[in-house]
Amino acid sequence: MSSTTPPAADKPEWTWDIARLFPPQGQWSEGSYLSFTESLNQLVEVVDGRVEVLEIPTKSHQKIVQYLLQLVLAFLSDRRLGDAISAPYRIRLRDQTFREPDIVVYLNEHLSQFGERYGEGADLVMEVVSGDSASRVRDYEDKRRDYSQAGITEYWIVDPDQSKIVVMKLEGSDYTTLGEFAVGDEAVSELLSGFRVDVGQTLCPSTSAG
User: Check: CATH 3.90.1570.10 for 59-207?
Assistant: First the structure.
């Protein structure tokens, strides 16, 4: 009695026909990027016409962003200095290049750049580093380059894995480090004179209420 091997179950296939509706990498125009991302619940950036899909932030990542945004908005409001917003919000850095920083700050003199669909550059940006290695490279290297080239005055990197906040200021065409602040320190801004945050409370905002 012979036996037959059942046919292998069909493997699901990618819907490549959908992909053909979009431009190839390196050929995304600003209009294509804006139209595409306005229909998504996902962080997507475009760098020199190449789309980068970011990981969905974790709860702890979002809690840190929310905590920092509350502090920044309160500081700006009390002194009537400007405005701020958290991701998802796109900023245009150069032709065919948009990033979505975790927090974006515009001072009063540049509020005209704080557009409805996206902003043009910024005065200060903050990034909270996610746990994957690609995010670490993106925040410490790629975005440092892009933000400095766009003339953004101050850049904060909040690094939960290394329990520190790095504050950098633009000097010439690159950033110099104003300070690396650890748990027990207060991270301070030069651009926003008087703005300071407790590093430990920032990295564990759920325990800092009260």
Answer: yes
